[in-house]
Amino acid sequence: MLYLVGLGLSYESDITVRGLEIVKRCKRVYLEAYTSILMATDKAGLEKFYGREVILADRELVESGSDEILAGADTDDIAFLVVGDPFGATTHTDLVIRARELAIKVETVHNASVMNAIGACGLQLYTFGQAVSIVFFNEHWRPDSFYDKVMENRRIGLHTLLLLDIKVKEQSWENMARGRLIYEPPRYMDIATAAQQLLEVEEKKGLQAYTPSTPCVAASRLGSPTQNFKAGTLQQMAEYDAGEPLHSMIMLGRQVHDLELEYLYEYCDDKEAFKSAVVEDQKFFAPAPYIAPEENFSD
Amino acid sequence: MLYLVGLGLSYESDITVRGLEIVKRCKRVYLEAYTSILMATDKAGLEKFYGREVILADRELVESGSDEILAGADTDDIAFLVVGDPFGATTHTDLVIRARELAIKVETVHNASVMNAIGACGLQLYTFGQAVSIVFFNEHWRPDSFYDKVMENRRIGLHTLLLLDIKVKEQSWENMARGRLIYEPPRYMDIATAAQQLLEVEEKKGLQAYTPSTPCVAASRLGSPTQNFKAGTLQQMAEYDAGEPLHSMIMLGRQVHDLELEYLYEYCDDKEAFKSAVVEDQKFFAPAPYIAPEENFSD
Q: Which residues bind S-adenosyl-L-methionine (chains A, B) (predicted)?
């Protein structure tokens, strides 16, 4: 059996009781270590907590070496640990498809991921549209495909969860070109960088998918002991120091209810200013006012 | 401290290790018991697993008696247990706002909820739009506000998670009118009923937000030992016996990638027919084909 086990967001102890029982009894345990990190622990911390060895699975192993991971899983139990939920922001459907081809059974132990825990900011998960990724801009590559998606969400009044780039075990262009397996230190995009990139793309496109005054919520270290939210405008986010990673961000849509707004006040520097920004922003993409058809008594 | 603790979807042991430690040491432990159920256990099962008493919190207590729940939480630890995640489909922001007013600290222990675990069907959570609720139709009330939302999602190619009604501790009209506190047995909407209601509303509205051939995925007992998925058309869902509750459903949008489709084949009776339905359905709301502007060499 292949067990896909979600680890949740932060602590060693965010694993479920059922997940821990499985990890303890599996023959081999892999930790997917390239799409996210546990904020309050690391491989050594997990090994101590589980009382057993954990094998780091980098991108090469997962994408090219899945048969190595699955070896013997037809008779033995193998666990594949994923930060958050195994079917959260990054899915591992390719590993499951390969397991099916090898007639290996698969069971999932779900856990919280950013995709649902973000509800802790007080905005209803119901009124989120599609999620988008914001990746690090560089000199050569400034991908802005998120822009149209944010526009689509906001046109129908929905909030957008912005997932910020994580670069783990990346090579520099030079090292890659020379075939040197030297990796850059990990980089985690912060709120300010994400907001600056959003502002740059709006300035370039000029279609007012959003403005510098559009209300946003910054989520820092979601699910960790130092979790923090901050509500403000996109412009304020571009200057906000959100502290240690990981960060994610929400851009609000028009559908903000009074209870949601009241909840967000807790995270505002200036409630009145934030409320004004929300009311002002609701004018964008507002449905046309209803005009009753003229009654026609002739004929 | 008030701890909001997510219980996950099914087993007693779906609680996180950290959540269990908190539950064991809290002075009082409430179980929110009216918006969802744990599929593989009940109050007695939880009390045995936790080794302590659990107080059932029904709608009246949570909505009118929150001060009773919060009593003493400024000095003692109180836990409020929620099936899924505390900020999942049903949020408890009102309880948190009341705690803030009373200067009581609040900490959340997140867990999986239908809002992220639904990713186990193989469709990317990224490409889900707003979630909608399908409530039981009766003679007097056939609410169809979901229809416009499904249309909005499908116009931009997104999938829709349909959350199916749960009726726990409801009174009949007659008992309510006579002020008798007699409750009906719990009812959980099944896939077939939801699909029939969807078809009825499409027939009434006639705007082709979807058709009987629109591809869907049925999720039965998500996260439980008997979890099951079924992929088929909406018409097939209207005749599908999905077995024991709880059920939820996804209506697909245009954005289906090859890997997602390959994953869904596992859940089809007839792969080719399902693939045809997906391809056919992608024509709805497809963006207009790109036509290059005519070049104009005059002037």
A: 9, 85, 88, 113-114, 164, 222, 247
